[in-house]
Amino acid sequence: MSSDSFSGHLRSTLFVFTLLFFIIHSSSQSDERQFLLKFKSILTNSKTQVLNTWNEETHACNFTGIVCNSDEEVKEINLSNQQLAGTLDFDSLCSLKSLEKMSLGSNLFYGSVSSHLSNCTNLQYLDLGMNFFSGEVPDLSPLTQLKFLSLNLSGFSGPFPWKSIGNLTGLTFLSLGDNTFDKSPFPSEILKLYNLDSVYLSNCTIEGRIPEAIGDLTSLKSLQLSDNNLTGEIPAGITKLTKLQMLELYDNKLTGILPVGLSNLLNLSQFDVSTNNLHGDVSVLKFLTQLESLQLFENSFSGEIPQEFGDFKFLKQFSIYKNQFTGELPAKIGSWAEFEYIDVSENYLTGSIPPDMCKMGTLQKLLMLQNKFTGGLPENYAGCSSLIRLRVSNNSLSGQIPDGIWSLPNVSMIDLEMNQFEGQVPASIGEAKSLTQLFLANNRFSGELPTEISNVSTLVEIELTGNQFSGEIPSSIGGLKKLSNVHLQDNMFSGAIPESLGSCVSLNEINLAGNSLSGQIPASLGSLASLNSLNLSGNKLTGAIPASLSSLKLTLIDLSDNNLVGRVPQLLLMVAYNGSFAGNPGLCADGSKDLRECSQASHKSGLIKVAVYCFIAGVLVLMLSLAYILIIKLRKIDRKCPINRGGSWDVKQFHVLKFSEDEILRSLTQENLIGKGGSGNVYKVDLKCGEQLAVKHMWKSEPDSGSWRSSRSSAAILPKERARWPEYEAEVAALSSLRHMNVVKLYCCISSEDSNLLVYEYMPNGSLWDRLHTNKKIKMDWDVRYEIAIGAAMGLEYLHHGCERPVLHRDVKSSNILLDEEMKPKLADFGLAKIVQSGKAMNSTHIIAGTHGYIAPVYWVQNEMRTKEDMVSLVDPNISKDAKEDAVKMLSIAVHCTMKLPALRPSMRMVVKMLEEVKPYLFTDIIIEKEGANNVSLCKN
Ligand SMILES: *[C@@H]1O[C@H](CO)[C@@H](O)[C@H](O)[C@H]1NC(C)=O
Ligand SMILES: *[C@@H]1O[C@H](CO)[C@@H](O)[C@H](O)[C@H]1NC(C)=O
Ligand SMILES: *[C@@H]1O[C@H](CO)[C@@H](O)[C@H](O)[C@H]1NC(C)=O
Ligand SMILES: *[C@@H]1O[C@H](CO)[C@@H](O)[C@H](O)[C@H]1NC(C)=O
Ligand SMILES: *[C@@H]1O[C@H](CO)[C@@H](O)[C@H](O)[C@H]1NC(C)=O
Q1: Could you give the CA distance from residue 390 to residue 358 in angstroms, rounded to a whole number?
Q2: What phi and psi values does residue 410 have, to the nearest 5 degrees?
Q3: Would you state the pLDDT for residue 202?
Q4: Does the active-site annotation cover 754?
Q5: What are the strands, taking DSSP E only, across 340-439?
Q6: Phi, psi values for residue 326, rounded to 5°
């Protein structure tokens, strides 16, 4: 071999090597891109802006959120808080050989976390916290490099693999709280993780004692074990943790006293042991001069507040309510740092209110109710424009309120009740632009209520009971459109009740009892749609009770001890309590045992009266019959039809109709009536051809008065009965354009001047409520229930995401979910629905808040489900054992939908995805029928 050919050979070999290296190198590059794109492809909202750069054209190292090492291998994924949703493909992610950091917290990921996570063996930083996963946390023991582990508030349950973290000795940050793990004692495995500086194990079902050996974790700066079921004393070991800055043990069952050595924790700035069973004094805390936040409330602490607290230069939050503290507050407390709040309510504190807590102008809450404070409200607070809540009720405070207090621009609640304050409410109260609650009851306030009070348009409650207010109730009061409760009883108000009170449209309770009000009861009160309680007793009111009050839906009415005269309207007698009209000698009623009969007539004239009534009734019946026959003749309508066809009928159709308007009208007979509701009667119509329809009949004007109302329950305010007409329009507007297999189909509406007919498809199985709770109850297997749940969810998904302009139903409940012959669910009753203008965010709260008929979700269930067993016990016992597991999964999805913050609730699109994940094994494939516009064959004429 010549040297030439040798070097040529060498060169070509080198070339091949170079080429190979290049190919291998670039192929591993494109592999990494493929892994990332695969991860992206599984996300359900992968179109979010942040992943726009994730495409075939871009180098993986240039993908948003990706950081590579010097070899251009993916080292970090930083995608926390990006609203990403979907399941996580750990198979792909953990194929990234050099991945050290995976930051995916605060997103909307769901599904289980697969055991493939344990292939990510180079991970040092793992954040999956604040997501919506389900199931157990997989084995983490292979992740031996981990320093940062955050899984808090992520929907995990089952046993936590404590053993697997025992060897992760590099851990410095461990956050597992807010998950419903199985009950467990304090995990001894973490006591060997000496590098830990932050531990968050709050609210994850740990019980029993905190071990003494916690004191070995001497690097700890933050230790949070709140919201568990911890018992026993706070171990003395804790006092060895001298680096601690934050110690949170609240909401447990800890007993005993604060350990003496706590005085060693000189770096402590946040200390919270609230809501436990601790007792003894708190003098040991007087050394902790770095404290910013001190929370001792809801314990049984006693003794005096250390005067040293008054010198704490950083104190911003101080809450010790519901204990048995005595003595005085340090005069300088809260005067150094930007102090935010003090709550010392429900103790036995004496002395005066410390004057300088708003010195830095940042105080938001001053809460000192139910103590024995004396003296006045210090003048300084009149300039405290940051103040939001001022509550000093139930003390022995006295003197005048500094003027500026009444007009504080941010104050929302002023509560001075049960003291000995005196003086007047000044006109400047009109400048209190944020005031919603004004509580002055049981003091010695006097003078007139200023007219300017009507400028406080935010006012919801006025409580002035038991003072010496006098003069007239300002007629400007009608300007208070948000006013819900007005309690002016037991004062010296005089003059007439202002007519304008009837313009306070939100009023729920009116109590003007025990004043010197005169004149007539304004008829305008009868228009207060949500009034629930009306007490005007013990005044000097005259005249008749306005008939308009009959239309109110009251649980309490008290007009006793006035000078009212005349007949008590019959409808008021039905709701009224005994004695509601007593002490008004001029009042009478027919057939009431408490009031005299209106005519003083004898039995004999009584008989005459009956005869006269009979005669009048007879004549009326005769006249009506004649008129009826005449109308029938004129209109040539089938006699069975109860509908006044005074006007012509106008038909609006939304689907192809194969039936005539006449065929519908003829069928609206008593025997076809299948339901009576707040919004109208519902008839079942059998078409000649054998198919069926449901027809809702709504009146425009009030139907014959009494009969309609008599069925109401007294307490409930039934908005449906009141707003019948808008409801019809809402229903038509919402339903006419909707086409979905899980939304009830509105074929057409037929309207005249005074009546409306809504023609729907007929749902033979009635409502879900009926099937679950009434005598039409049937046994429903889990698969049937599951199908109903997912069907209803898909209907809502369509309303929220499938229409050009989203529709909010606002009255979703089992009685509004109807079932067809195959038990397939359809959403119905769109009477309260609202169409959101396109472009407006769906989560903007004002659309949802304050709508009548929408009852915000209650948190009872959430509170009842701390553990898996709890959750299983909440499940309907009729559900078979095998299905309970699935039911619990569905329950936790439901609970996600009721998160306190609407922003944290999943969208309906996500809910459907999550529900699909918990599909019972029984039917692996539900075939979702696509609905054409007119696929229901309605027979031809
Ligand atoms: C990333 O993008 C920048 C600018 O677009 C480009 O200069 C750079 O070469 C890209 N990096 C890689 C590794 O492709
Ligand atoms: C990842 O883990 C799974 C099971 O945990 C295993 O079957 C698979 O081979 C692993 N893949 C790699 C690339 O190590
Ligand atoms: C932890 O480490 C010890 C010793 O290094 C080993 O024996 C044990 O199996 C490890 N435990 C786990 C769960 O990996
Ligand atoms: C406790 O954790 C649950 C989730 O398991 C969460 O829904 C709840 O809000 C947490 N409670 C508190 C007080 O944070
Ligand atoms: C808390 O623990 C006690 C026993 O230590 C137990 O009786 C109780 O049921 C537990 N409570 C909860 C809510 O787990």
Answers
A1: 12
A2: -110, -5
A3: 97
A4: no
A5: 341-343, 348-350, 365-367, 374-375, 389-391, 396-400, 413-415, 420-423, 437-439
A6: -125, 180
**Is residue 537 pLDDT above 70, yes or no?**
yes
Residues of each domain in the chain carrying CATH 3.80.10.10: 14-174, 424-598
Name the DSSP letter for residue 450.
Answer: P
Asked whether residue 147 is marked as a ligand-binding residue, the answer is no
Q: Closest Cα to atom 8, ligand 1: which residue? A: 62
Short-list 300, 252, 295, CA closest to 278: 300
Fold classification of 424-598 is 3.80.10
Nearest to 320 by CA among 334, 385, 388, 311: 334
Whether 64 lines ligand 1, by a CB cut-off of 6 Å, is no
Can you tell me which atom of ligand 3 is nearest the CA of 167?
Answer: 1
The ligand that comes nearest to the alpha carbon of residue 142 is: 3
> Which atom of ligand 4 lies closest to the CA of 226?
13
pLDDT in tens, 704-728: 322 222 222 222 222 222 334 566 7
pLDDT at 855: 42
Ligand 1 neighbour 26 (Cβ under 6 A): no
* Separation of alpha carbons 339 and 254, rounded Å: 29
Letter for the amino acid at 190? I
pTM of the model: 0.66
What's the CA gap between 145 and 161, in Å, rounded? Answer: 17
Q: Which ligand is nearest to the CA of 169?
A: 3
Cα(773) to ligand 2 centroid in Å equals: 49
What per-residue confidence (pLDDT) applies to 696?
85
Rounded mean pLDDT of 315-319? 97
Q: Which residue has the least CA distance to atom 1 on ligand 1?
A: 62
Distance 53 CA to ligand 1 centre (A): 12
CATH, domain range 650-856+898-928 = 3.30.200.20
Q: Residue 412: CB partners within 8 Å, gap ≥ 6?
A: 388, 389, 434, 435, 436, 437, 458
> Quick check: CB of 179 below 6 Å from ligand 4?
yes
- CATH class of the domain defined by 14-174: alpha beta
The three-class DSSP label of residue 271 is: strand
| The pLDDT value given to residue 808 | 84
Ligand 4 center from residue 123 Cα (angstroms)? 28
The Å distance, Cα 145 to ligand 3 centre, comes to 14
* pLDDT band for position 769 (cuts 50, 70, 90): confident
Tracing tokens 């609206």 back to the chain, one arrives at 668
pLDDT at 16: 46
How far away, in angstroms, is 21 Cα from ligand 1 center?
21
Q: Averaged over 641-646, what is the pLDDT?
A: 35
Q: What is the rounded CA–CA span in Å between residue 5 and residue 301?
A: 95
CA–CA separation, 567 and 576 (whole Å): 14
Q: Is the CB of 184 under 6 A from ligand 5?
A: no
Q: In the predicted model, what is the mean pLDDT of residues 216-239?
A: 97
Average pLDDT over residues 392-399: 97
Q: Where in the chain is the domain with CATH 3.30.200.20?
A: 650-856+898-928
- Answer whether 870 contacts ligand 5 (Cβ < 6 A): no
Mean pLDDT of the chain: 83
Residue pair 377/354 in contact (Cβ under 8 Å)? The answer is: no
Q: Which atom of ligand 1 is nearest to the CA of 61?
A: 13
Ligand 3 atom with least separation from CA of 163? 13
Nearest-CA residue for ligand 3 atom 6 is 167
Catalytic residue among 811, 820, 876, 925: 811
Question: Which protein residue's CA is at the shortest distance from atom 4 of ligand 2?
Answer: 116
